[in-house]
Amino acid sequence: MCPIGAPTPTQTRGPAAEGLPRELAGRWGPLPMNPTVREVNEIARTQRRFESVRQDPWWITRGGIPMVSSMARGVGSPALSPPGPVGHPILGSVPEMRREPFEFFRRCAREFGDVYRVPFPLGGSIVVVNHPDYASQVMDDPVGRYSMIGPGQAAMGLIGAAIPMLEGDKFRQRRRMLMPMFGRRHLARVAEVIADEFVRRVDGWERWAGSGRRVDLQHAIAQVTLPAFLRAMFSSSITEREIHETDVDLRTFMSMMASVTLMSPLPNLFPLPGRESAPRSMWRLWRLTRRLIKDRRNNPIETPDLLSLLLEATYDDGSPLSERDLSMELMILMAGGYETVVASLSWTLALLLAHPEHLGRLCAEVDSLNGAVPTPDDLPKLAWAKACFDEGQRLQGHPLNPRFAMEDDVIGGYFIPQYTIVGPSLYSIHRDPRWWTAPDLYDPNRFMDEAAAKDRPRLAFMPFGSGRHHCLGTGMAYMNAQFLLAIIFQRYRLALPEGWEPKHHFNFSVTLDGGLPVVLTTA
């Protein structure tokens, strides 16, 4: 399916089709086959944009370097570079993007279409795609044209490599190592451990119920999910102090990764009031992972878990994971295994509490369990809870899911040079009125309507990514969310402050800015 107003995905490098203006025909590289009048006009508009930029004395800072590089390779042309905001001569569009990355990308999609370029400092740029078909071209690429880490792979030997940082044979072998621990059989085995930890810690919220005290539930959920994940996947327990420190350190770690996109502040190199330093957080995480590894080697267990699987795993050539790879893999697994659920569930609760009609239906569904602790067999009975979680993830969104183009490519008729950062804006696609009626409205019924779901493009909703790097922990995330929603509303009712509204905070995951302030009462 091709978006209105954009060139068709099918391209040719041969002569231009009949009907194009003479000054464009055959001159600008790959052009659409059998272009429509709308497509001809789009190409002409692109040429006019190029001509206006060429007359700009600052053009060399607005993309001249990648433009010259592209032309030097003899592939593509500046006229077929994606359109986009002009930006500042030196800083590009980064200041505007930093102020509000979510609405910035959505605004650009409305103005420039389904493929657009965002200028970065010193002539750099990223390309954002805003159509599920183009997102699939990047995310589902089967032959290695797009990479999550790109040129950064050279540093993996120094700092260690986790599965999101790998490509090719190493990636496939590492994924095979981890997949058994995230399959249904293993999740069924650890479900009791997870539910037990959830119940024990959520029961502790009783001290807040009826007190009138305002509690940050986003932080409280983090204190529930992190120890549950460690027990389930690593058969390990940590102290309350370590839970607090690890929560802070993992968020600092993710902030470091997010800063690469220039959408969040650079991490602190030195401690500041209220903010941890990145070096100290990384050192504490490294110390924790090394301790987990050492303890397991000294005290093997009979029932295999994720940690023992990693310690025993070997590549096809018989070599084990390096110590650096083991530590980095544990850090990434901890960050992805709990922080993303914390963020998505917090968004779900915030939106549910603002819509009593949907919350009432959830409470009725939870009551059907008759107070029993949920099990995997109960998940089909918690279908509305899953729909509420999916709708929360849709509106939570993510500003950009980036990849590196490892070779020249064409997306939607626009030339993408090698090493360009390119990816979909989930926030924009998840709120696109072409795929979602009343896109800003929280309505879990969207995910109960199978016919409507079939009418949407597959990647109109992709909270866990797609393709080779589709999140391994998707099944665990849904189980955790459904379990926690049931356990919370079996025990409590929650109320938001009057006039409070959720706001996005980008820290690699997308959390609630300022947390989730609620007052608890007993159900």
From TrEMBL:
Region annotated Disordered, chain positions: 1-31
Keyword field: Heme, Iron, Metal-binding, Monooxygenase, Oxidoreductase
Pfam family name, one: p450
Keyword flag Iron: yes
Parts of the chain that traverse the membrane: none
Molecular function terms from GO: heme binding; iron ion binding; monooxygenase activity; oxidoreductase activity, acting on paired donors, with incorporation or reduction of molecular oxygen
The protein's name in its UniProt record: Cytochrome P450
Source organism of this protein record: Mycobacteroides saopaulense
